[in-house]
Specification:
Low-confidence stretches: none
Number of helices: 1
Structural class: mainly beta
Helix content: under 10%
Strand content: over 45%
Shape: globular
Length: 456
């Protein structure tokens, strides 16, 4: 603590062993998928680096997971320092990291800073600056400014959020438009909710420490939801209806549409006991400007594709020991069909000591270019011996990598701020075509970690 509301954190050669391994994902799109941050050093105060509103799924100017990775491979962190906190209307967050050398670069210095100022109870303005390229290959600086205005007293008791942002990147990136900007309006209330957003990302906008899967695009989103609570006796078992419609479109910078999705939800209910039932229809359009290798053996050609997707979902109440749910999505997919089945089961013992989650995703794809099935299975289980000692495990297998991975963690809280971890990671290749073949271990590690806080 360096002040009443200011904290400084320093780390040297951290291992992050206690962070849970990433949950694997099936990617049937040409774009990078998002993975959440799980390392405590970066999670602490992460909300103070948040930029603008309504862009989290499409643009994150500072994405801390880029720190410690080069081309998907882990790189050690030699040292890092962070300052986070507030001083009156000011909020300050700054992070500096020295990343170790990698196969493609020497050690690299990375920096991110976020400063915001509360003009009044409704308006906050801020800046975000990042400096450095995690790969060490280029020189890169990102600069952004944003403003967020919120009220809970519109027309007396209604909520309204408005946000705008603008940014640019400089450095050694390619020629083109290095700027970006956008706006977001959200009316989030109990009976009605509507959202309008529009964002443009230059084809040369390059936040090297950020997440931007689709540069060189204009992205639009219009959402309208109506959520009545039934008063008729025949519908008293329904807690709330959710009638929704959404239009999402992505164009290139010349105005040519790359993607369009319209989602219409005529049936979506939450019952009084917590049961959730939903059905929606989503006509889609995709334009591929270059071939898309959806698997190693199947590549979709350049062209325009129109198809309809249908979605059914059912979930049991969350209050009991068991929760069971499933999603079924079927219909067209580019020039063929895709059937996606996602069931899950949750269980918690009566005393709360045992907990288990099982998730499964099966995607059956039939295209003119080929047919394939991808499957992902994940099992999480935990047992709390008492308030201080707990064991957790995470098993996952997918048919793309054909690898069974396990992460087991034993945690003992000796005293507040003093913890012992024992972490075992084990990964084994399981070739489905050779089910009787010897399993080939790929990654094995055992870590014993002591975490001790000293109070002066």
């Amino acid at each position: 603590g360096i002040g009443p509301e200011m904290t400084a954190v320093v780390t040297v050669n951290p291992d992050f062993a206690e962070a849970e391994v990433d949950a694997r994902q099936i990617n049937l799109t040409p774009y990078e998928l998002f993975q959440p941050e799980k390392r405590a050093f970066f999670l602490d105060g992460a909300n103070q680096f948040a930029f603008a509103s309504g862009i989290a799924g499409i643009f994150i100017p500072f994405y801390s997971r880029t720190v410690g990775l080069v081309d998907g491979d882990p790189v050690r962190i030699d040292a890092g320092a962070k300052v986070i906190g507030q001083s009156g209307p000011w909020s300050i967050a700054a992070l500096g990291v020295r990343a170790g050398d990698s196969p493609v670069s020497d050690p690299t210095n990375l920096f991110a800073s976020r400063v915001t100022y509360d003009v009044d109870d409704h308006l906050r303005i801020g800046t975000l600056v990042t400096d450095g390229d995690p790969t060490g290959r280029t020189r890169n600086v990102f600069e952004g400014a944003d403003a967020i205005w919120r009220t809970a007293t519109l027309m007396g008791d209604k909520n309204l959020n408005v946000s705008a942002w603008a940014a640019r990147s400089t450095g050694d990136s390619v020629r083109g438009d290095h700027t970006g900007f956008g706006t977001y309006i959200d009316y989030p209330n109990d009976l009605w909710r509507w959202v309008i957003s529009a964002n443009q990302f230059g084809d040369a906008l390059d936040p090297a420490l950020g997440f931007l899967p689709r540069p060189g695009t204009r992205q639009y989103d219009v959402y309208l939801g109506y959520f009545p609570r039934p008063q008729d006796d025949a519908w008293r078992w329904v807690h709330q209806f959710f009638y929704e419609s959404e239009w999402e479109q992505t164009d290139d910078l010349h105005g040519n549409t790359e993607s369009r999705k319209v989602t219409l939800t005529p049936f979506n209910i939450l019952t009084d006991n917590g049961t959730h039932l939903e059905a929606h229809w989503a006509p889609r359009y995709e334009r591929l400007s270059e071939p898309f290798a959806i698997t190693d053996k199947v590549t979709l050609p350049i062209g325009e594709y129109n198809f309809d997707r249908y979605h059914l979902q059912a979930e049991s109440p969350t209050a009991g020991a068991w929760q069971i749910g499933a999603q079924l999505e079927a219909g067209g997919f580019y020039d063929g069909t895709l059937t996606q089945i996602v069931p899950y089961v949750r269980w918690t013992s009566r005393d709360g000591r045992w907990h288990a989650d099982f998730d499964n995703e099966t995607d059956q794809v039939r295209l003119r270019e080929g047919t394939f099935t991808q499957q992902l299975l994940q099992l999480r289980a935990s047992y709390a011996m008492n308030a201080d000692i707990a064991l957790s495990t995470f098993l996952q297998y997918d048919t793309t990598s054909r690898r069974l991975g396990s992460n087991a963690q034993w945690r003992w809280i000796v005293a507040p701020g003093r913890e012992v971890y024992v972490i075992l990671n084990h990964n084994v290749d399981v070739p489905v075509s050779q089910i009787t073949a010897a399993r080939l271990p790929q990654d094995n590690s055992l870590t014993i970690k002591l975490q001790w806080n000293f109070y002066l």
